[in-house]
Amino acid sequence: MPAVIDDTYAEAFRSIFAEILVTAADAHWLDTAARHATGNASSSILCDCEAAVSRSVDAKDTPDGRPGVVLQFHVPRFWKEREQKLERALLVRVSQNVLTCPTTACFNMLPAEEKWFPLGRKVSYFGDGHQFKDERFGRRVRVIPILSGEFVIERRFGWAEGLMGGNLWFMGGTPEAALDAAKRSADAVRASGNPVSLPFPGGVASSGSKAGSKYKFTIASTYAEFCPTLRNKPGVTTRLPEGVASVQEIIINGPDLATISAATQVAIAAAKDVPDLLRISAGNYGGRLGKSFVYLLPKAAGA
Description:
Blueprint: E1 4-5, E2 9-23, H1 27-37, E3 50-57, E4 68-76, H2 82-97, E5 105-108, E6 116-117, H3 119-124, E7 132-136, E8 139-146, E9 149-154, E10 157-158, E11 160-172, H4 175-191, E12 209-211, E13 220-222, E14 246-254, H5 257-271, E15 277-281, E16 292-295, H6 298-301
Helix pairs in contact: 1-2, 4-5
């Protein structure tokens, strides 16, 4: 029978984000650039941003007629100097992991009339004075001579307000069921073309956390009340339903509440019939972290 879906919500919080389109000659180098540019960007707990592939773009829909992927980068809105930190994350990742990857080019995906970074100009300084401005594919770009030919990057990259922290918890009667459900959900969301991103490895987080810790130097820690191996440990009040052997999580970031909510429903539909999946739930802090609630049950969304 299908898993129980809790009448609860995930608690999303405000972010600022950017989207870049990376194109390449073929799927191999496109995947390589995407994986490296979004590496070590799972959680803003310690990473400089949260980043992941958002969606694929067919060659017929990219400026240069080559296959592409959209990469999404988020930082929390409550961070001090958030705009500078997002720009820095983009600069480091594009210059070190896209510029260096064979056959790639880089284009902006968000409006860049009011809120934008001069990313193309800053990356182009690698050209050591040989870089130049041009208009290609109907876009204003900077062209950098490199050993393999040229690297083309759009001049301006826009940023916008977004949301982080949509999530789902998959509670399995076996570890295999929880992981299967989480993977199916992550795969379904990515395949849907929905403009969201799942920043954890493979889209799945095995170590869902709570805010705070007994250690002052740590801002987040393991959610002991939901750890199966701590179920009978003295001093731990378990909140796991009976029979749950493992919990896997997916995190969903995106441009707005409606988009994340739609992705949440795609994820639930993909997982609910997994054998031995007992329950689908979500993590929240009663509104203390964020004010955007992503309801798991569609009927609750209109409440």
